[in-house]
Amino acid sequence: MRGIVAGLLAALALAPAAFAQAPTSTPTGPLSIESQGSFFVGGRDIASEDLSTLPAYAPAGTITVDQMYVQYQIPAGGTAATPVVLIHGCCLTGTTWETTPDGRMGWAEYFTRRGQPTYVVDQVRRGRSAGDPSGVNAVRKGAPVERLPTVFSASHESAWAIFRFGTAFPQTFPDLQFPIEAQAEFWKQMVPDYLASMPTPNPTVPALAALAQKLQGAVLISHSQSGIYPFQTAALETKGVAGIISVEPGACPDAAGDLAPYRGIPIMVLFGDYVEQFPRWAPRLVACRAFVEKVNAAGGKASLVVLPDQGIRGNSHMLMQDRNNLQIAGMLVDWMKANVKR
C-alpha cells in the first residue's frame, strides 16, 4: 500500500507542474524546415491469384501489403530534439494531426514549430498504407462470402457520442471546445476501418517498433483505437520508445499484467471532459487509472491527467482538434521536455 501511495503522489506531482506553464498563443511566422518527406516501414510480399477482376490487369502476381506510411517534418536545428510519432485512431487517418476541421494549426505543425521532429503515420491498411484486395476479388469470382474482409464505418449519428460532442446526436455540450460549426469537414476525414480484419499482432505495432528504433528514440503519441499501440510496442521492444503519451486510449494495459516493459519509460495518459458521463468511456478511465497506479507502485514514472482536474473544461474526444488544442499541445511539449530523455 505504501508503494502505491508513493507512486500516486509521484504521478500527481508530474501532471500539474507540466501543465501550469503551457503557452496559449498560436506560434506565428515562417516555419523553417530542415527536411521533410515520407517513407514506409514494414511490409511483406504476398502472392495472390485474386488481384483483379478487370481484363486490363492480371489477376495473379505479387503485391506488398502491411506497410505503414510515415510522413515527416524536421525543423531547422531540430535534429537533436526527441522526435514525436503521431498515431491516429478509429475510422481516421494521419489527417487527425495535420489541421483542425475549421482550419487552425494542428499538432503536427505545432510540435514542429516547437522544435521537435514530427512523424505522422497512417495505420496499416488505412489511408496511404495499402491493403490487400484479394478477398474482395475472390468473392467476386465466386469464393465463399467469408473471404470478404470485415470492414466498418462509424456513422455521424453513432460517432457523435463516441467522440463526446454531446450525449446524443445532434445535442452538444454547452461548453464544448470542439468547433461544431465545422462538423461537416470533420466527417470528411473519416474512412472505412479494417481493424477487425487485421492479423494478430496488428502490423502497425511492429512497424512502430521499427520506426522508433530507426529514429533512435521517439515519443509515441497515440489516440483512441491506437491508444494501446505504444504499450504493445514497448512490450514487443522497449528500445527506441523514449516516452508514451496515450490520448484517450480505448484501452490501457492490464494493471494485473506484466508491467516490466513500462517501468523505464515516462508515460502520460490523457483524458478530456465529460468522460464519466459515458458508459463507453468511464470504465476506460478507471482501467487506465489502475494501470498508472500499478506502474508507479512498481517503480515506474507514469501520470494520468484528466483535464477538468486541471481546470480545463469542455474538451471532446478529439481534443487535438478542439479550440484549445494548442494549449494542450503546449502542455505535452513541456511534459516531454521535463520527463523524456532520448
Give structural notes:
The chain has a single domain, classed as Rossmann fold (3-Layer(aba) Sandwich), CATH 3.40.50. The protein is built from 10 helices and 8 strands. The chain is globular and about 60 Å long. The chain has helices spanning 2-20, 95-98, 107-113, 134-140, 156-162, 183-188, 204-214, 229-236, 282-297, 325-339, and strands at 33-48, 61-75, 84-87, 118-122, 218-223, 241-247, 267-271, 302-306. Helices cover 29% and strands 18% of the residues. The chain starts with a helix and ends with a helix. With 342 residues, the chain is of the alpha/beta class.
What's the quick description here?
Keywords: Signal. The chain is an alpha/beta fold.
Describe the strand arrangement of the main beta sheet, using strand numbers: 1-2-4-3-5-6-7-8
Q: Quick one: overall form?
A: globular
CATH topology: Rossmann fold
Mean pLDDT: 93
Using the 3D structure, state the CATH architecture: 3-Layer(aba) Sandwich
CATH class: Alpha Beta
End-to-end distance: 32 Å
At the fourth level of CATH, the homologous superfamily is Alpha/Beta hydrolase fold, catalytic domain
Strand element count: 8
Runs in which pLDDT lies below 50 for 5 or more consecutive residues are: 1-18
Main sheet: strands, sense, barrel: 8 strands, mixed
Count of the separate structural domains: 1
Class inferred from helices and paired strands: alpha/beta
Gyration radius over CA = 20 Å
Distinct helical segment count: 10
What portion of residues belong to β-strands? Answer: 15-25%
| Fraction of residues in H or I helices | 25-40%
